[in-house]
Amino acid sequence: MAGFRDIESGKIYIGVEEPAKLDQAVETLNGDKPYDGTLVATGPSFLGAHKGGFAKATLNVGTALGDWSPGVSGRAVQVEGDVEVIGEEATNAVYIDGDVFVTGAVDCLNKGRLASRFGTADSLGKSFDIKHPTKEGYRLRYACIEGPEVAIYHRGRLKDSNTIELPDYWKNMVYEDSISVQITPIGKQEDIYVKSFDSEKIVLESDSDIDCFYHVYGERNDINPLIVEYEGETWEDYPDPNLKLDPSDKDRNIKDPNYDTGQNTKTVV
Hints:
mainly beta, three-stranded antiparallel beta sheet, about 5% helix
């Protein structure tokens, strides 16, 4: 079979057209003249056999190269340096069928399906799924409780005291008139009631020594209240545009008065 061997040339051009028409390498200059050692092809290129057997792209790369095999099994492309991909027509500019391993930070700009998962949950709710801690061959799936407010809670046990001390940051994080308290006596029935409350402490009253579990809820006031019902077709129609902006965006205002619809829960009547 005839072929070229030991070629030494400033440029190799493969194509049927005149180089001046399709050869963009002539525009890549080393000072005032073209670089030596450029390779130009005006048709699809193939390096190694790949699945499909036809040109799925301009450059088609596979690992089947006769007796030779890559130093890392299955690796078709090794790149040292930056890579830029500019999508044109495909819905998914980069399509990966397999796992991805990244050692640095990833900024995907939360577009499309990623945004719908990170920005808000769908009708399936927010959940975690882990290997079952006690049953072999099983998994455990839990989901978050949901409600018409953005709230925080504080829980614990109170003994030999009548005051539940709330975390110091609560006074700047919750509507004081949204606080609610649940009390469960321990060991015996007790008449325990809430004497007073604010965003710093809950004061209880009882005819006997207090020993109880407690659970305190409060709606957050450091962000705009949740707009529970709104007109729209998808989650992207949510009225407050600030929630769609990146947290680093200087224009993001999570206390935008234009979207303050008032707190959702009031416990002071």
